[in-house]
Amino acid sequence: MADTGPIVSLDALAAQVPDGALLAVPPDYSGVAMAATRALIRRGVKRLHIVAVPTSGLQAELLIGAGCVETIEAAAVTLGEAGPAPRFSAAVKSGAVRIRDATCPAIHAAFQAAEKGVPFMPLRGIIGTDILRHRTDWRTIQNPLAEGDDPIVLLPAIQPDIALFHVPLADREGNVWIGRRRELVTMAHAAKRSLVTAETIQDQNLLEDERLAAGVIPALYVSAVAEAERGAWPIGLEGRYEPDTAHIADYVRTARSEDGFRAYLAEHVLAGRRAA
Amino acid sequence: MDFTPQELLIASIARMLRGLNHVAVGASSPIPGAAALAARRLSGGHLRVSVLGSRKNNFFTDGGRELFDCAAQGRIDAFFLGGGQIDGQANINLVGTGGYPRTDVRWPGSFGSAYLYFLVPRVILFREEHTPRVFVPKVDFVSAPGVSAPGVYRPGGPYALLTGKALFAFDKARQRFRLESVHPGFSVEDVVAATGFEFDRAPQVGQTQAPEPEILALLRGSVRDEVAETYPQFAATILRGAEAKENRA
């Protein structure tokens, strides 16, 4: 078998996410690897600890509904205009999933700490919230550089096992272009490994083009890339396609009940190898 | 002049943005978004606007963290927050009702509120639904507190609360809201009955100022097209609806 380098099939990519992984995923306005998420559900991944950077939508909702998630850490889980995420809400209420509520900049800061290889990042705000009260892993200290009273919160670094996301363009070396979606850069820098799906994989090395290079995550950080056309569907991909709002609205109606959710999974996730 | 309830809200917000340098608007916020874009036109382009979710009307190119870093540096003058529950001390709850973590009703989550509420000088609380289930005596979960203990770094905080029925100002010294005005069609008694917390008010409370003709013209013209880039449905239905009504009149 020929060496394909970092380029693998979607199923081979999904196989690289072990049960129990600390998995970082981007928000809906970034690049959400939905085709890979469906492949993960088909392979029956278990006990994931998902960290949304900093929010998630249908991706977390489907993984939670399918029983793949033990813990979700997020500043929000929402289907946007389509309304609340029904399986997420049900799982929180029943205790089937453990929720670790956060606030957006705290997650970004914890990833920046991992990116720098330091144990924590201090951050303003947060003091006096019930988020902090329930986050026993977050610590409030006195600013050691201040003369007077100045409490400040420390966020422990988050180093995910895997960052999983979708991009418009990759090359055969495993360089991936993310444009202005730089939260993906922080995720990739912080994670031990990044698994990426791409709309298109081109032959020419992305780093050869100076106009693209600053928007590239180099292959140094990328373990595997799988081609997935419309790989963010039914979520949109900035500059490429809009979210499939009709599909998401249908999902919300269907998934109000557990049975409805099972039917959705059967039709859109478990049936097709590449349901898109 | 005739105007819609949404145009009244947009105009009320736009008035609070006068003289500012940079306002940011969160996702899924068409009324604040329309107000910010209209205020930008009214300022002659002086006001900078960052609408999250917009490609054109958005200055951020450094990832999700940039908005927050910008706020911490004092580069954002105004922002908008809502709440599933809001109480009389301006605490907001975006997480859910009942016990935590197994909430009876679960909302999406706190987003950046636990940070921006501390750092942005003029946070405008906006919630159209004005009922006792939203405006409660005490929130079930504090996503972000209205006030902080002395010594806590807090250049920002609540400035006003705008609802579908009224406009309140927040008095930081008294840690209470003060009713500024009621919208056309509502009385002070209506507002008292619909509000689950106590608030201050003068013996006479006036009516919320009607939208200026200039802003109505913008909302029914050029600003509507700008709004449509990020909030197409809102622009097509709510703003277009106002224009249709005007043409019939």
Supply database-style keywords.
A: about 280 residues; alpha/beta; 2 domains; 10 helices; 15 strands; about 25% strand; B: about 250 residues; Glutaconate Coenzyme A-transferase; 6-stranded mixed β-sheet; 8 helices
Q: Care to describe what's here?
A:
The complex is a heterodimer of chains A (276) and B (249). Chain A is an alpha/beta fold. Chain A folds into 2 domains: 207 residues, Glutaconate Coenzyme A-transferase (3-Layer(aba) Sandwich), CATH 3.40.1080; 37 residues, no CATH class. Helix content of chain A is 31%, strand content 25%. Chain A has 10 helices and 15 strands. In chain A, the strands form 3 sheets. In chain A, strands 1, 2, 3, 5, 7, 11, 12, 13, 14 and 15 form a 10-stranded mixed β-sheet that branches. Chain A has a 3-stranded antiparallel β-sheet with strand order 8-10-9, with helices on one face. A two-stranded parallel ribbon of chain A has the order 4-6. In chain A, strand 9 and strand 10 form a beta hairpin. In chain A, helix 3 crosses helix 4 and helix 5 crosses helix 7. The longest helix of chain A is centred in the middle third of the chain and has 13 residues. The relative contact order of chain A is 0.18. With 249 residues, chain B is of the alpha/beta class. Chain B has a single domain, classed as Glutaconate Coenzyme A-transferase (3-Layer(aba) Sandwich), CATH 3.40.1080. In chain B, the strands form 4 sheets. A 6-stranded mixed β-sheet of chain B has the order 3-8-10-11-12-13, with helices on both faces. In chain B, strands 5-4-9 form a 3-stranded mixed β-sheet, with no helix packed on it. The radius of gyration of chain B is 18 Å and the shape is globular. Chain B starts with a helix and ends with a helix. The chains are: A alpha/beta (276), B alpha/beta (249). The interface between A and B is large, with 57 and 49 residues.
